[in-house]
Structure formats: C-alpha cells, structure tokens
Design goal:
There is one protein chain. This protein has 356 residues and is an all-alpha fold. The longest helix has 30 residues. The protein has one domain.
Length: 356
C-alpha cells in the first residue's frame, strides 16, 4: 500500500475504479455476490503485492454501511410482517435455531483452527457475507478471513442444495412441489415513496445510523439505518425501492475496504483456512438439515421448501433455486428475511459478552 500523489479523494476514486473492475470481472464469470467478492479479490491482490493506494476508510465505510442498512430496511413492510405473524411459531423457532447454530459454528471454528474468537464468531454466523463483513469491521476482526469462510460456505450450499432436494424427494416419497399450505396473499395496491418521502428517508437513515454508531451499537451504522428506513415505511404506510446502483456502489466499497486488509501474511496463511472452513460448513450443514426436518414435521410444507428456508445463503440465490426445484419461493423468502433481520439485530449482542 502506498500514498497516492493526488491525495485521499483521488486515492479513493482510483480504488473505487479498481473495485468496480473486479465487480465486472466476477459478474462476467457468474460468481456469487460479485460486487463484494470481485472488489475484495482485485483490491486484495494489489494490496498484498504493495500496489494499492492508501486512503482513510472510516468515512466511506460509514456511508456504505448506511446504504446497505437502508436497502435492508426495504424488507420491513406490512406485507412481510403479516406473513411472518402468520408463520410466527415456525419463524421464531428457526430464527432461534439459526442464532444458536451461529454460536456453535463460531465456537467450533475457534477450537479447531485457533483463529481468534472474534473472527471465528463472525465467520460462523448464518448471516449474509455483506452484513457479517460490516459487523467484522466494527469489531476490528480479520474481515478477509470472514469473507473467505462465508464464500466457501455459500458456494458449498448453493452447489449442494439441488442434490439435497432430490435426496429428500427419494427419502420421503414426496414430490418437490409444495404441499397445499399456501402462504401467498392477494395482490394489494402498494403506495411507494414520493420525492419528499425519499428526502426524509435519507435524513432518517443517516440520523439513525449516526446515532447508533455514536452509541457504539454493534454494526450501528447499518442497523440504525435499517430500522430508520423500515420504521419510516411502516409509519407512512408506504414502501420504497432504493436505487440498486447506490447499493451496488456501497457493496463495491465494502469489498475494497475488506480487500485493503488482505496482507501478504494473510495470503501465506490462506491454505490453512481451507480445513477450518470445511469443518464449520459441515457443522452448519448438519444443523440446518436438522432445523429443516423440524420445520418439515411441524409445518406440512415440502421438505425441499424447508431445506431452502433454512439454508444459510442469500435470497438472491435461494429464490431462483426454489423456483427451479418446484418449492415455494415466497415461504423461503419470508424465512430468509426473518433470518437476516434476526442475525443482524440480535447476534452481535450474543457475541459481545463472549469476546469482552
């Protein structure tokens, strides 16, 4: 890493261009989560080689976290809350199970690998890559390690889930199509934010994120913005669609901030992370399978729908898989919304007492 002659602003612009190039490369190669992982990989490779410009990441990390939080706030609306209420018993059991499984995986990773406890607990969480990287940055954990283990798990689950669905069909004799239980709701007229509402949203998001950050809330910028945006939508009785290009830019920033922490020492140790990543992924697979069986026995939904509902992967990957396998994508999406919100909200408070 070196000081860029044009100053901090110029260094950031060059860095962002490098991260964007990584995004387009990974998108072309059809890698999962290309914005974060592509930016992180290209940035990390240059940084490890000593050819990456240095700039202060605190301000851009805060802004990117707020943007990610606002986009998560889109998930909090009356329709989704209504669906969660109708499936409350199942959602609560599965969310609690995912929180417990996250702790088990994190502690197991620490024991088998010797990775520091903070990094292990964040790496073992069943939350998304982006959200856990933001949490890791807050805790000053080894975010490059977190990203590697989460990526390994994501690729493993996305590859394995279709085969698990076929195995489930053979074991149970139940076709992949969902049972008669239907969580779909009638179409309703949705009112979206107007221009003034968006101005209020931006103010509330930065105010909420700034307040939570100032109060030292874990991943406070993201969490505060998420609840500020979702709360405003509930208060106004409207929904909002945040510009996907802003989210894309924020994810590229998260990726390059992570990549700047990839050092030559980390690259040398990369091979030692493979076995710990495999161990924690197998533990997570066993735990998620047990949770899926419990959900199958208590809900009456197809086993494939239940497997997809508890799989620790992103909604962008799970919903298309559900449609391809004939499962119920709506049910799976509701569980993933509850999981992500639950992990982001509650898991940091479970972790902090263990690392303090």
């Amino acid at each position: 890493m070196f000081d860029f002659p044009g100053g901090q602003a110029a260094a950031f612009c060059v860095s962002f261009a490098i991260g964007a190039a990584g995004y387009f490369l990974f998108k072309f190669l059809r890698f999962p989560n290309p914005a974060v992982l592509g930016s992180m990989t290209v940035t990390g490779a240059l940084n490890a080689a000593g050819f990456f410009p240095f700039f202060d990441t605190r301000a851009v990390s805060f802004v990117a976290s707020v943007v990610v939080g606002v986009t998560l706030g889109q998930l909090i609306d009356r329709t989704v809350i209504g669906r969660i209420i109708r499936m409350a018993r199942h959602v609560l059991v599965q969310t609690a199970g995912m929180l417990a499984l996250s702790l088990v995986c994190g502690l197991s990773l620490h024991v088998v690998s010797g990775i520091d406890l903070t990094t292990s607990l964040v790496s073992g969480a069943t939350g998304g890559i982006t959200e856990m990287i933001i949490f890791g940055i807050f805790l000053d954990a080894e975010v490059s390690t977190i990203a590697f283990i989460h990526l390994f798990r994501l690729v493993f689950f996305i590859t394995l889930i279709p085969y698990l669905g076929l195995i489930a069909e053979k074991i149970t004799g139940v076709p992949l199509t969902p049972h008669s239980h239907n969580t779909r709701v009638k179409d309703v007229t949705v009112e979206f934010f107007g221009r003034k509402d968006f101005l209020t949203l931006i103010f509330m998001a930065f105010a909420g994120g700034g307040l939570a950050f100032w109060l030292n809330v874990p991943a406070g910028a993201m969490l505060g913005a998420m609840f500020a945006g979702g709360g405003l939508a509930l208060l106004l009785g409207k929904q909002y669609k945040f510009d996907s290009r802003l989210r894309l830019a924020a994810l590229i920033v998260i990726g390059l901030v992570t990549g700047m922490r990839i050092t030559p020492q980390f690259v040398e140790q990369l091979g030692t992370l493979l076995i710990p990543a495999m161990v924690v992924t197998v533990i997570m697979l066993i735990g998620c399978t047990l949770l899926a069986v419990v959900l199958y026995k208590t809900s009456g939904w197809s086993l494939t729908t239940c497997l997809l509902s508890v799989a620790p992967a992103g909604m962008n990957q799970i919903v298309p898989l559900a449609e391809d396998l004939g499962a119920d994508p709506l049910t799976a999406s509701v569980f993933h919304i509850a999981r992500i919100v639950g992990i982001v909200t509650f898991y940091p408070w479970l972790v902090l007492p263990l690392i303090s």
